[in-house]
């Protein structure tokens, strides 16, 4: 604790030495980072100390970050860390907030936004949180009116829609602004609903569903809805997103829809307001496929993502009767087909990748003291784990045949190839032994993944024996 106090004091001393312009710039950059979704605890500490120094010196600093963060606070549960051109129902990309805020202050309501933001910043500098919240509420009300005018002026005009996207600086400007209007209009209803929800719902069973349904119905019963104000359908949508955020398994949201319809028949479910739950789960599954494509291209692990997609697909098919033709069944079929297409090439390439690393090489082709590339070994191990995950989830991911074939090739090659590698290690000389040892070590890692830790441990012991045997056989000859 003493060291923490000393660190804080040193930080204060340093910040006091900064010129006002430097403090101003540092505050703005840190707050922009927080607005983009950065949650570094160190940044928060520095901001706190900067604010204390600013108050102590009565230094006027333009505080764009705090005003923006308070303005967008009702949107927080609906923000996603995705590209700005995402297509997730009821969501806004965090990256879109900064250009939208700039557009509001530049084009939508320049004078009002500037005046209210300055008042908000002064209230924050004075630690008057109540005053700041009142000012933010006033800014919300004015922004809602102006945004509604902009949205109604666009109408079906595609050219106007594109022009708005250029002005705002986000590809989904009209959709984002419409979402902001709905969320700001419902901020009190949704805020109260969110406070009544459990922080975490591990299993969405009958009792939890009934409790959540009652709370949603109470929120929808607000007299201001559909009387020139927000729509009841928006309450259903955003309340369901809040519930989904709290679920241990997001796909379980489907259960509230089948419970409301008292049936797993898609037609009956579609007739209820809770049909939005199915739309949300399918939208989340589609977004996971987009992320899967990106992660595969980047060569990053995707096992947890495969499980999430598998669970969502299985949940949809087990909780609802999607055997009949319907928009939802077609949407799920398209998702599974796209996942299958993404995975097949990666699955088929894995046995060949492993063979290239572990293939026996003549001693003349091995540079003295060389080793397998560690990056290649890590990638191969990740690929072997990937094939194992695909095999586990093959049915819902529609990759049964290709996964079975790839897994058979891998097991056959590892069972037979490791014997050859051990013989090569036993007969190796001083120059090629490091490389052959690195091949055996890689094979042990792959075998642990495919056959389990016990098999890998036995192979490791066999490798030790092979090295000792080979060294012992050569000593008398050298003597």
Strand content: under 5%
Proportion of residues in helical segments? over 70%
- Which value, in Å, is the CA radius of gyration? 30 Å
The number of helical segments is: 22
* Secondary-structure class: mainly alpha
What is the strand arrangement across the widest sheet? 1-2
Contiguous low-pLDDT stretches (5 residues minimum) are 58-64
Rough shape?
A: globular
DSSP, total strands: 2
Largest sheet: 2 strands, parallel
Calculate the terminal CA-CA distance, rounded to whole Å. Answer: 64 Å
Topology as H/E string? HHHHEEHHHHHHHHHHHHHHHHHH
Q: What assembly state would you assign to the polypeptide chains in this entry?
A: single chain
Mean pLDDT: 86
General description of the model:
The protein has helices at residues 2-17, 20-35, 41-57, 64-72, 97-108, 110-125, 129-154, 158-168, 173-185, 187-196, 206-220, 232-246, 254-261, 266-270, 275-298, 303-319, 327-358, 374-392, 394-397, 400-426, 433-451, 453-478; strands spanning 79-80, 92-93. By secondary structure, it is mainly α. Among the domains are: 195-324, no CATH class; 352-478, no CATH class. A two-stranded parallel sheet has the order 1-2.
